[in-house]
Amino acid sequence: MSVILAAAWLAATPAATPDTLDAITVSASRRAQPVREALASVSVIERAQIDRSQASDLLELLRREVGLDFARTGGTGQTTSLFLRGTNSNHLLVLIDGIRVASSNTGAVALEHLPLAQIERIEIVRGPRASYWGSDAIGGVLAITTHQPEGPEAALRVGSEGRLGLSAGWGVRQADGHFSLTVGGEDYDGFSAQTPDGFAYDPDDDGYRRRHLSLHAGRQLGSQQLSLSV
């Protein structure tokens, strides 16, 4: 379990209206449509839900979703395989900002290294989507949209087992372009992933440390859009 303390200094925005907008999915049929109109089973996790979840990492957040399971070789940050509705891990198509990401050897994706601080939105589409996305979407689609701050923001994450994370970002968006930068890191002391009666038992804690940086920039050039993502 973790606790998030966040601070953001943003320009004043108009008060929200009482109208509730339907969640939109793009991954179900490769076009924008309300989730309630999609033929597939779709779940959408927004940034506010991620913050409220107090999940320690992306895998802990996803394991709460129906039909999603994962297997991990050890503690936090170790190699992880994700399974949707019992299909093989390479039958779940993973998109990050609309781009396919997968190992050329195993077809798996290293989601264990993607921090929650860099995620804005997650779409989970259950069931075969091969007719839209190809054979690597037999089990479904996991589409992740990365976070692009507007204005300065910072967040501190504190949890059990010595978990401490910090992230900060800044961004600006105008009619003819946008720019955003997010940096951060997390340290986790962890615990021993082995049981005392296991083979070659090692009582040392299996900790984890990661540093992350993401940059997004775009410029409208006439009818063309020039974009850069790191």
Topology diagram in text:
Blueprint: E1 2-8, E2 24-25, E3 33-34, E4 41-46, H1 47-53, H2 58-62, E5 68-72, E6 80-84, E7 92-96, E8 99-100, E9 119-126, H3 130-133, E10 140-146, E11 153-159, E12 163-174, E13 177-188, E14 208-221, E15 224-229
Parallel strand pairs: 7-10
Antiparallel strand pairs: 1-11, 2-3, 4-9, 5-6, 7-8, 9-10, 11-12, 12-13, 13-14, 14-15
CATH class of the largest domain, named: Mainly Beta
Oligomer: single chain
- DSSP helical segment count: 3
Give the ordered list of helices and strands: EEEEHHEEEEEHEEEEEE
Share of residues in strands: 35-45%
The computed structural class is: mainly beta
Helix content: under 10%
CATH superfamily of the largest domain: TonB-dependent receptor, plug domain
Shape, principal axes of CA atoms: globular
Tell me the span between the first and last alpha carbons.
30 Å
CATH fold-level label of the largest domain: Ferric Hydroxamate Uptake Protein, Chain A, domain 1
| Mean pLDDT rating | 81
Q: How many strands in all?
A: 15
Radius of gyration: 19 Å
Q: If strands are numbered along the chain, what order do they take across the biggest sheet? A: 1-11-12-13-14-15
The domain count comes to 2
Query: pLDDT below 50 for ≥5 consecutive residues: which ranges?
Result: 6-20
The CATH architecture term of the largest domain is Beta Complex
What composes the largest sheet? 6 strands, antiparallel
